Amino acid sequence: MANIGKSITIKGDLTGDEDLQIEGTVEGRIDLPNNELTVGSEGKVKAEIHAKAVIVVGHVTGNVSGTDRIEIQATGRVDGDVKSPKLVVAEGAVLNGAIEMGPVKSTSTGVGSQAASPPKTATGGAAA
């Protein structure tokens, strides 16, 4: 697993073929279609995210697409739309955005693309 430490700031596109943990700051686009992305407790991400699985413990601003699952833990916050066949939102987590549940294409163009019909099923706030 690769790690971006809390003192690291990256602006631009991140792609790769291994699991990644972010404790620092990332702005841009993250594309890990076959791997897991973890935004750690110190992590601050302002990016469009596309990964196989996404675990948010810190803060994400931007749309998140997971081809397998998205998990927002109790200290996690997502300000953006989420799209995944499986979604876990822990008590205390914050999700501000639309939720689309269903199969997600494994191509990197899945983030930010529009579906043929309006997929928005819920608009979230703080989970109780």
General description of the model:
The protein is mostly beta strands and 128 residues long. It has one domain. It has no helices and 13 strands. Strands 1, 2, 3, 4, 5, 6, 7, 8, 9, 10, 11, 12 and 13 form a 13-stranded mixed beta sheet that branches. The chain starts with a strand and ends in a 5-residue tail after the last strand.
Mean pLDDT: 87
Shape by Cα distribution:
globular
Report the helical percentage: under 10%
Give the structural class: mainly beta
Q: What low-confidence regions span 5 or more consecutive residues with pLDDT below 50?
A: 108-123
Specify the oligomeric state: single chain
Q: Tell me the radius of gyration.
A: 13 Å
Q: Please count the helical segments.
A: 0
Task: Count up the domains.
Answer: 1
- Please give the largest β-sheet: 13 strands, mixed
Distance between the termini: 33 Å
- The number of distinct β-strands equals 13
Order of helices and strands: EEEEEEEEEEEEE
Beta-strand portion reads over 45%
SSE topology sketch:
Layout: E1 2-4, E2 9-15, E3 20-22, E4 25-39, E5 44-56, E6 59-61, E7 64-72, E8 77-79, E9 82-83, E10 87-89, E11 94-96, E12 98-100, E13 122-123
How would you sum up this structure in a few lines?
The chain is mostly beta strands and 128 residues long. Helix content is 0%, strand content 54%.
Key attributes of the depicted protein:
128 residues, mainly beta, 54% strand, globular
